[in-house]
């Protein structure tokens, strides 16, 4: 009994030092209690495990590098004509034919127009549609290429400052995108505590599964414990056929039930897209990023455990 109490006190102190003081007592009790059955913890990834959204940033990275499969009709079939598809395709063809695409006079316009497409579609169709569509845009890329491009993007964005970039489109829209990412040290250490105390750590993210697998591995999460949005793969190449459920609200809970098969002991998330799986947890852990007061009202109303994310220790830039 004394050993168990000491263990709980040790975990409590570690959680406090990491910035979890709002929930450290209750969380330490859950982490250190005796285990008779399999227990799991499931965490969202973007803006929960990291600062910013690697899914969105990965798409910006592909745009910057002219790395989408622009040579395929199946890619352009996914771009709505209302978003200037035909003009954009001609622009890309001109850039790709030049000796130095990145110095082409149209390159900046290309980046602005490509980055605007997601924002326009989001306003028309909503988050669920856009989450699935963003993964479908990887059509034609091989799985090996996705892994390589993902690690390049992660390394590059870890070295960048956290900043907002703005682009002005031909329609006069000002498109803002967040660049740079940071690993949240406190979350990585929490995962180590969970693992050391017999709780499996899983990730459930709306970002494409190939990118999240690579990033989650840097947190010590095995690649086979990552759930993410994905498309059907044929001969190692991504198609545009989405595999349900889409990781959005109740889709996350459905995926957890299918892939993991047990009710999570702990679920961590930061937005309304995580509510479905947070409601499923014994210990819902909501990370308040300060982006929407309605989220906190919902969490408080449901007696969830709330942590202010900016209090958690973040790792410094690799740059």
Automatic annotation (TrEMBL):
<dbReference type="GO" id="GO:0000287">
    <property type="term" value="F:magnesium ion binding"/>
</dbReference>
<keyword id="KW-0028">Amino-acid biosynthesis</keyword>
<comment type="pathway">
    <text>Amino-acid biosynthesis; L-serine biosynthesis; L-serine from 3-phospho-D-glycerate: step 3/3.</text>
</comment>
<keyword id="KW-0378">Hydrolase</keyword>
<keyword id="KW-0479">Metal-binding</keyword>
<keyword id="KW-0718">Serine biosynthesis</keyword>
<keyword id="KW-0460">Magnesium</keyword>
<dbReference type="InterPro" id="IPR036412">
    <property type="entry name" value="HAD-like_sf"/>
</dbReference>
<dbReference type="GO" id="GO:0006564">
    <property type="term" value="P:L-serine biosynthetic process"/>
</dbReference>
<dbReference type="InterPro" id="IPR023214">
    <property type="entry name" value="HAD_sf"/>
</dbReference>
<dbReference type="GO" id="GO:0005737">
    <property type="term" value="C:cytoplasm"/>
</dbReference>
<dbReference type="InterPro" id="IPR050582">
    <property type="entry name" value="HAD-like_SerB"/>
</dbReference>
<dbReference type="Pfam" id="PF12710">
    <property type="entry name" value="HAD"/>
</dbReference>
<protein>
    <recommendedName>
        <fullName>phosphoserine phosphatase</fullName>
        <ecNumber>3.1.3.3</ecNumber>
    </recommendedName>
</protein>
<dbReference type="GO" id="GO:0036424">
    <property type="term" value="F:L-phosphoserine phosphatase activity"/>
</dbReference>
